[in-house]
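Session log. Operator J.P. requested a structure for one protein chain; no other inputs attached. Running the standard single-chain path with C-alpha cell output.
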Amino acid sequence: MDKLASELRERRTLDDEGLRTLLESEDASLVESLHRNAREVAVERFGKQVWLRALIEWSNVCRLDCLYCGIRKSNREVPRYTLSREEILSACASAWKEGIRTFVLQGGENPSGALFLADVVADIRASWPEAAITLSLGELPFTTYALLRRRGGDRYLLRHETASAAHYARLHPSDMRLDSRMECLQELRRLGFQTGMGMMVGSPWQTSQDLLADLRLMERFRPEMAGIGPFIPQHSTPLGSFPAGSADVTLRLYSILRLMLPAIFLPATTALSTLLPGGRVQGILAGANVIMLNFTPRAYRPAYSLYEGKPETDGAEALRELRKELSEAGYKTTS
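Structure written below.
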C-alpha cells in the first residue's frame, strides 16, 4: 500500500483505483507516505521556501447566486462594499513594505466593476513594475479578460468548483454552466495568463468519483496554480446547514496534486486553517508552497463573508507569527 505514493511520484499518475485508495484509505502509514513524498518533491523543486501572496478582497458585489457563497447576490445580511482606487493601492503598498511581491485582487463577479479594476491594475503595474498581479474575478466577457491582461494582469484564478456537470448544477443556479467556466479557463490561457483552477472539498453531494473527476481535469488542463480548500457552510446561504468538508481529504489532495503536477503553485488556504489549527503549516508539510495573507483594510474584512469563521485578523499583523511557525518547521518565506 505504501508504494502507491512512490508510484504516483515516479509516474505522475495512477489509475482510478489507486487515486481512490489515496483519498479514502484509513491506513495512517499510507497517508504519511503520501505527505512525505509530496513534501520531498516540493523541496526538490522549490527548496524549503514558501511563497507569500497579499490578498486584497477589493469588492463583495456579485451578480451570482451560488448556493454556497456568503456574498451571493440574494444575501441581504451582508453590507456591500467596493474599495476605492486609493484603498487598493494603499493595501498594495502595505504588502510591498512587508516584502510581498505578488498582489491577489479577488472579488465577486461584477463585469462593470472589473472594467474599473482594469484601470487600477494599470496603476499597480506602473507603481510596482516588478510585482506579479493575480486576479480572481469570476467569469467575465473575453474582451474584459483581454483588457485586464493588457493592463498588466499576470495570473488569473478561476476555480472550477467541481468537474461533474451534474454536481455543478446542484451547487449553482440554473443559468450557470460548467461548460461556460471551462471556456473561460481556456480563453484565459490563450491570452497568456498563468491560469489557476480548483475546487471545494466536501461540498454538499460531492462523492469520491467527483473528486477523481477533479483530479483528472487538472491532470489534463495542467494549471499553473490551484486553489483548493474545504467547504465551510455560511449560515445565510441555502447550503448553510450542511457539514463542513474534511481537512484530512484536503491535505491528501494537496499531496496528490504535488505528485501529479510537481511545478504547480499550491496555496495552503485560509479555509483549511479555519477548520484545522495550524492548517497553513500542515498544508506546507503536505506539499503546498504558497500562503496568502489578507491585506484587505480591516474595516471591510467581515463583509467578505464567504464562509463561517473566516479570520478577520491577518495580513501584516499575522506575518511575524506565521514566519515563526514556518521557521520552526524548517521553512522560510519568499516572495
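Operator note: The chain has one domain: 31-334.
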